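User: I'm curious whether this sequence folds into something compact or stays loose and floppy. Could you predict its structure so I can see for myself?
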Amino acid sequence: MANVKITLVKSVNKARDAEKATVRALGLKKIGQTVEKTDNEATRGMIRKAVNYVAVEEN
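Assistant: Here's the prediction. I'll summarize afterward.
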């Protein structure tokens, strides 16, 4: 499967609790941190939930 790189680009301080939990579940803690996840529907759904806070780069 393909992978995607997900980077936290904006603070989640004033985000809703569900968005904060989604960003945390993606494994992101600090602004600028990048994680690599498999590209599947579950990951894509999480990205859509936190679209205002993350940047996505497809490999």
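Summary: The chain is about 30% helix and 25% strand. The longest helix spans residues 17-25.
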